């Protein structure tokens, strides 16, 4: 899972506002951290960083050297939401608050490390871990989603006949079609594994079907133009899972939806259809 609570550092080393800058520097060195939340009682009132320490006299007190107000996030925030905050306010770290109490710290380097693990190195788009995270969050927020799984036809034979470099080129060309077709505001795509891609969409299932048809047709055309001719079979489902979502088991629901889309894709391949919509 990629919520902040799973990657934040905890317990948190903190300092009070009346201590000196030199004491703050000593604490940071001892605990090997780049910043300390400043806490009075249980209330967060500021943050002092290694940069603040370098630019203030050691004898000054923390209250005169800390930054305030403090930008913070919550344990349930995703790493993308936290990354947006760090980027917006151009900061390297921030406290994680739960019920107004500091429960962790998160740094930009930690977030970037985990975000890097969500990318497929060959195609440059996200991988399956990302799509599960996004889909689960959309469901938890009460959105209805549609799921489509695309499977390249005869990809193993294509690799054997032309070589893996040719196959890799084919996959990159398919990703280009996705990027040129989907809308970032409502569609999310990943390389699910091997020659399979998964699309999660906030569109109604009939509109997702229209999008899938466009993508399937374009893949045949564009891969052919690029000398890497390939076709795909797709399975589509979703739109009728309210009963399952009420159980608040979003991750399991996403697994079920992707599995149904996968089975529909296989069925489409067997009967030589470009796609099948699974509606039960």
Features:
21% strand, alpha+beta, 6-stranded mixed beta sheet, 280 residues
- Regions with pLDDT < 50 over 5+ consecutive residues? none
Helix content: 40-55%
**Form type:** elongated
Could you describe the largest sheet, including whether it forms a barrel? Answer: 6 strands, mixed
State mean pLDDT (0 to 100 scale): 91
Total number of beta strands: 10
Tally of individual helices: 10
Spatial extent as radius of gyration: 24 Å
Order of helices and strands: HEEHHEEHEHEHHEEHEHHE
Widest beta sheet: strand line-up: 5-7-8-6-9-10
Q: Percent of residues in beta strands?
A: 15-25%
Distance between the termini: 29 Å
Content-based structural category: alpha+beta
Describe this protein's structure.
With 280 residues, this protein is an alpha+beta fold. Helices cover 44% and strands 21% of the residues. It has 10 helices and 10 strands. Strands 5-7-8-6-9-10 form a 6-stranded mixed sheet, with helices on both faces. α3 (79-89) packs across α4 (108-116) and α5 crosses α10. It starts with 20 loop residues before the first helix and ends with a strand. The mean pLDDT is 91.
């Amino acid at each position: 899972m990629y919520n902040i609570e799973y990657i934040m550092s905890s317990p948190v080393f903190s300092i009070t506002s009346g201590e000196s800058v030199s004491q703050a520097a000593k604490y940071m060195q001892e605990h090997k951290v780049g910043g300390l939340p400043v806490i009075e009682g249980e209330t967060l009132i500021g943050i002092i960083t290694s940069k603040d320490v370098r630019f203030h006299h050691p004898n000054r007190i923390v209250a005169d050297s800390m930054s305030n107000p403090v930008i913070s996030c919550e344990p349930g925030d995703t790493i993308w939401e936290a990354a947006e905050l760090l980027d917006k306010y151009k900061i390297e770290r921030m406290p994680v608050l739960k019920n107004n109490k500091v429960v962790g710290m998160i740094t930009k380097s930690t977030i970037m490390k985990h975000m890097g693990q969500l990318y497929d190195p060959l195609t440059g788009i996200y991988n399956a871990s990302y799509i599960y995270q996004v889909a689960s969050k959309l469901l938890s927020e009460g959105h209805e989603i549609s799921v489509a799984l695309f499977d390249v036809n005869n990809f193993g034979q294509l690799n054997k006949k032309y070589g893996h470099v040719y196959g890799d080129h084919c996959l990159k060309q398919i990703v280009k079609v996705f990027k040129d077709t989907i809308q970032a505001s409502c569609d999310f795509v990943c390389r699910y594994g091997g020659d399979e891609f998964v699309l999660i969409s906030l569109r109604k299932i009939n509109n997702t079907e229209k999008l899938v048809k466009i993508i399937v047709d374009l893949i045949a055309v564009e891969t052919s133009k690029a000398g890497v001719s390939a076709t795909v079979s797709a399975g589509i489902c979703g739109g009728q899972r309210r009963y399952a979502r009420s159980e608040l088991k979003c991750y399991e629901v996403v697994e079920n939806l992707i599995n149904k889309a996968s089975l529909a894709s296989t069925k489409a391949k067997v009967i030589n259809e470009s796609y099948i919509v699974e509606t039960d």
